[in-house]
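Appendix B, Record 12. Input sequence as logged:
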Amino acid sequence: MRRTAFSPYWLLVPALLMLAVNTFYPVIYSVYLSFTDWNWGKTSNFVGLTNFINVLTKPQFRGAFFNTVIFSVSAVVVETLLGLGLALVINRLSVGAGIIRTILLMPLMVSGIAVSLVWKVLLDPTQGIINYFLSQIGIAGPAWLGTVPTAMPSIIMIDTWWQTAFSFIILSSALKGLPAEPFEAAQLEGASPWATFRHITLPMLKPVLITVIIFRTVDTLKIFDIVFGTTGGGPLRATEVVQTLAYQTAFKFHRFGESAALSVVFSVIILVLCLAYLRLDTTEEDAS
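Logged structural output:
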């Protein structure tokens, strides 16, 4: 009796089914909802592009989109530079580097909601430990999360504390993998540390830096937990981002179709950014 050869590709079926259930179906259903006026099961009529028109013409979306971009750009720049600086310094240490890496990685093990709640307590204007220490040196601490000028910088600071370790660990690993010959040659030529970093380290780290920036950009554009757990989008919508606006639209005002349309529009924007990066990367490879 002839036996049929077993194809190993069948082993992928469970994973593909899980991907379809957990990813493809929610995406497709969200797109479907964006064309309806579904309201918690009460109505579900096809409304065409009405939800998209409402989203794109409302000032709330433009404000939330602007806040999201401000947060994303600021957080990515600070976290990348800080992660790179820490990687350069710690990689030179001969003693204690492993302990420092472990300490720096600890914030990544905590969920965003937990991080936001802890920092909300620390930054409390009356009972927070931050303002207490400031008062000990004669400085009156502000209401960090309660005023327009300080709310967004405070959230950027919280995300920096939480996610800098991601940039650090990737860049630290990349630094360890760089070949030693160019640095030895630069040392023999008498190159300064800054010249070595600028002309040797940085160009060789460029692909990894771009990857870190892309990952962090996409992640920060989806920010929700820190904002939701600290300010909820306030004060006066100063920290309202696209994800919190979508949440409020759906679960506070019960406009689920409009919320889905907002999410679809923002997902398309993120997709365009990713495709632009891939196009740029391909163009650079072809040029080289």
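The chain has a mean pLDDT of 87.
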